[in-house]
Design goal:
single chain; alpha/beta; TIM Barrel; 2 domains; 8-stranded parallel sheet; 6-stranded mixed sheet; about 25% helix; hydrolase
């Protein structure tokens, strides 16, 4: 018996480089069946009126630590992961890289075990931001927990990992060839960040297999006229994709405009969002619209990815379709996934519907309506 088809009608469908009007998005089971003219739909599909709202692929966040009052590093449990996943799905983020900041190796391994037990359906894996960072650009990361990379540290860190760590932020200037190779052999996407790299060191890191960069402008060497540093290397290597936090706090909106002109489709959105926490290493204090450590150090955003899209459109002047791609197609391409981040036939039926005020109206996850 054929699985029933559901058609989302009367909406503006954003798929890749195309905006479809007077078309319907058809889902069958947990997959996208296709995009068809509304007049061509058969009678036996369930039609759902989108009331002129925007329809796009579910959003993808490659760096998020927590939501609301949940911070994974402070509560390394299956229950915490479940709450974060539920919250993100309600925000229209249907794929995410749960992130752990610099900590002891034992805490990292505890987090890996919890994640492996939870097996969250919406999570793409773990992103470890640290511990192989440059203390000079540590930001909110505790200096005493930052490690120089060695093979022994890598073997210890991954001694219980069955492949759940998918991404790591590292400082390229402290990574030798052996350590880079060991991480790449595990299939981990390496991203340059929390780095004081010179232009040359940045380019060397990219040539050795680092393929991305973490939160452009934040916690990295400056773009100086005598040495353009890591930002200069990012601009120069056209194979490198780079994330950015568009909340107007981590990066000024004028800098986002400049970055977008320079990087084009290589720039993608993350939230770098954390949860409120008053215990442990990372005590995040909510301050109006972002989080700081008790000493005032900027420690994370309070963004949702849909808010990052809204800011990109209303504050930066990026067209809506391009802002959507920055939170769907481009991050999917960074991690090499062809089944998410778009609404083409046979893609996973992860769908976000939001109105002109950037409010979530409906979310489908693997074909099931969750909002």
């Amino acid at each position: 018996m054929e699985t029933k088809k559901t058609a989302l009608v009367n909406g503006r469908i954003f798929n890749g480089d195309t905006i479809f009007l007077d078309h319907a998005l058809v889902m069958q089971g947990d997959r996208i069946h296709g995009i068809f003219p509304e007049y061509a739909l058969p009678e036996n599909v369930d039609r759902v009126d989108m009331h002129q709202a925007n329809v796009c692929a579910g959003l993808i966040d490659l760096q998020i630590y927590g939501t609301g009052k949940d911070l994974f590093s402070a509560d390394l449990t299956v229950e915490c992961i479940r709450r974060i996943e539920k919250s993100l799905l309600a925000q229209g983020c249907t794929s995410f890289m749960l992130t752990l900041a610099t900590n002891t190796l034992s805490i990292f391994k505890e987090g890996i075990r919890a994640f492996q037990e939870a097996q969250p359906r919406a999570s793409l894996g773990l992103h470890l931001e640290g511990p192989f960072l440059n203390p000079a650009k540590r930001g909110a990361h505790p200096a005493e927990l930052i490690l120089n990379p060695t093979p022994d540290h890598i073997y210890d860190l991954f001694s219980e990992d069955s492949g759940t760590v998918k991404m790591m932020t590292v400082a390229p200037e402290i990574m030798d060839d052996v350590c880079i190779r060991l991480l790449l052999e595990r299939g981990i996407l390496l991203s340059a960040g929390h780095s004081a790299a010179s232009f040359r060191q940045g380019m060397q890191g990219f040539s050795k297999g680092i393929r991305a960069a973490t939160h452009l402008w934040n916690a990295m060497s400056p773009l100086h006229h005598r040495d353009t540093g890591l930002p200069g290397a990012i601009f120069a290597d056209h194979n490198v994709a780079v994330s950015i936090i568009v909340d107007g706090i981590h990066v000024d909106y004028e800098a986002v405009k400049f970055s977008k002109r320079m990087l084009g489709r290589r720039l993608f959105l993350i939230t770098d969002a954390v949860g409120a926490c008053d215990n442990g290493i990372y005590q995040h204090v909510f301050k109006q619209d972002h989080y700081v450590l008790p000493d005032g150090t900027l420690s994370g955003s309070a963004l949702t990815l849909l808010q990052a899209i809204e800011n990109s459109v209303t504050k930066v002047g990026i067209p809506l379709d391009e802002a959507i791609r920055m939170a769907t197609l481009y991050p999917a391409q960074v991690i090499g996934r062809t089944d998410i981040g778009h609404l083409g036939r046979d893609a996973v039926a992860n769908v976000l519907v939001f109105d002109e005020d950037f409010q979530v109206k409906t979310v489908y996850f693997e074909g099931e309506q969750v909002v």
